[in-house]
Every structure is written in C-alpha cells, then in structure tokens.
Amino acid sequence: MKTSLVVAIVVVAIVVVGAAYAYTSIIAPAQKFKVAAVYVTPIEETWNQVLHNALIKAKNELGIDYAYSEKVSESDVERVIREYINGGYRLIMPHSWGFWETTDRLAPQFPNVYFAQGSGLCKNFGKNLALYDYYIQEAAFEAGAIAAKITKTNKLGIVTAFPGVGDVNNLLNGFIAGAKYVNPNVNVTISYINSWYDPAKAKTAASALIASGVDVIYAERYGVFEACKDPSGKVLAYAFGNIVDQNSLAPDVVVGSVTWDLYPMVKTFIQGAQSGNFPAGVYYTTMKTGGSKFVWNSAFAQNLTAVKAFADNLESLIINGTIKWTVDGNLVPLSTPNFAEPKP
C-alpha cells in the first residue's frame, strides 16, 4: 500500500513537472533577431537618418532588436563590429565608405553572421556580405531637370562632400545630367566642403554660390538651407534636399527632396538572413522598385503646375528605361550608376 502511494506521488510529480516545463517552453518568448548599425557621423546626418529610420520601422514591424553606434572612427570600427558579433547580433550594417575594407576582411571570418556594407569596393561577398549604396541618381536627375526649369539666372550649384568619391559622384552626375537634359547650356558649379558633416562649411559654400549668381542649389550636404534666406527672411535661392525628405526644414526654400527609401532593402536583408537566403552581392536601388524617389514640397508642386506635370512625365520615361546616359562608354538606362568624375 505504501509502495503504491509512493509510486503514485512520484508519477504525479513527474507529470506536474513535465507539464510545467511544457508550459514554460510554450510561453518562453523567442529571441529577437538582432541587427546593429555602425555610423561614422552623428545620427542626425541624412545618410545616417535614412538607415536609422528604416531600422526603427523594421523594429516596429518585424520585431527585431536594433542597436547602433554613432561617431565611430575608421580606426575603431573593427572593435565595435566584433563587440556586436560577440553580443549575438546576426546582421551588422557598417554604414560608411570608410568601413568597407574592415567589413570585407571580417565577413569571411564570420560565415554565420551577415554583413551589409553601406558603400565601398567590397569583393569578398561569399554568402553573407551585401554591398549597398544610395543609387538614387534617377531622383537626382529629376531634381536637376526641375532646377533647370525654374532657374532665372541659368546658374545652378551643388554643395557636396569630397571630390573623387564614386557614390557621391553618382548623385552629382544625375543632377547635372537632368539639368543638361532640359538645357544643355545651363551652368552648374560644384562646391566641395571636404567633410561628410559640417553644416557651417556647407552654409558658407552655399552663400558663396549665391553671391556668384546661383539661384538654385542641390544640397547634397546638410547646412545649405540656412544660406538661402537673408536675415529679413527674403529668399535668395531655392534648394533641393537630399537622401531624406527635408522639405519641412525650410518650406519656403526647398522645392523638393531627392530621397532614398531603405526600408524595402532592410526588410529584404533581415528576412534573407533569417531564412538563409541572404542576397549577397551588390544591391541596387531604383525608382522602379520604390527605393529612389523625388518628393515634392506640396506648396511648390501647387505653384509650379507646369513644371510638376513635366516632372511626372519625366518619371515615367525614367522608370520605363527611355532616359539613358553613357556609363563607361556604353549607353545604358539611367538606373545604372555613373561613378565617373562629374563634368558640369
């Protein structure tokens, strides 16, 4: 009798413990997929904002765990990346040209970690490394065409970072080609500030362009808008925003923005890494897929109805491949990047 009672108690205990374990297993939350981004400049810089915003959206819609580090130097990026890897992050996004050599070297060393490098000359793609960039020359082309339509002085300007950087050249080439498409004789002046992020230098450069007669500026760098109005509020020049929608920053100055929507790409990378079908290699953003967009300031769209209609038609020509340009000696659709030195 006592033996039977002991056996019964043991069986009940096993059942209860097993049920508790099963219940715990059922309700235990799955570990979130961990994604980290590394930025060389402050998060406020537009190149950073566009990825940051896309990853925040992914955090909310895809349930990922997102972390980032800003103001990381090229000499320190390897340490930061390794810390994220040791912390269980499965997708690392080093978001700067200056990081590409480190990423290209580390990716083969960590085949179970996925890397998405923001610009550069990566070669060691394997199955876990993707290279992306702001291939939004199509939207820049549209901005250049609009600029050529609205200038009164026939003088356009560009304020940008460094000379000789391929992905930046691509944007400049797009803007210049769009302007020349409308008016082959339009004058375009490029001003380099030799910095990725220096709003004060960008403002000074824009002021100098305006003093020379430029009345429309492509603000490829942050800080241009402040120079486009005098202290009394009078508009001295119009401008175009870059990478993110900057129309609200100076609504009486910014005609529209050349934007880069990274969420479709980020979603592809995350889901590819989770499923084991990561899109290694070069990832191209196009107007047709929605990554490259020109976003009008609604006030200017309403006031420039004829120009807006022209631009809408131009977008159709770009998307269907009618608009072409010469890249490396070949006539190709505008969706193909052009990294050559700009020729205003």
UniProtKB/TrEMBL annotation:
InterPro entries: ABC-Purine-Binding, Peripla_BP_I, PnrA-like. Gene3D superfamilies: 3.40.50.2300. Residues 42-323 form the ABC transporter substrate-binding protein PnrA-like domain. It holds the Pfam family Bmp. One of its GO terms (cellular component) is plasma membrane. SUPFAM superfamilies: Periplasmic binding protein-like I. Keywords: Signal. This is BMP family ABC transporter substrate-binding protein. It comes from Thermoproteota archaeon.
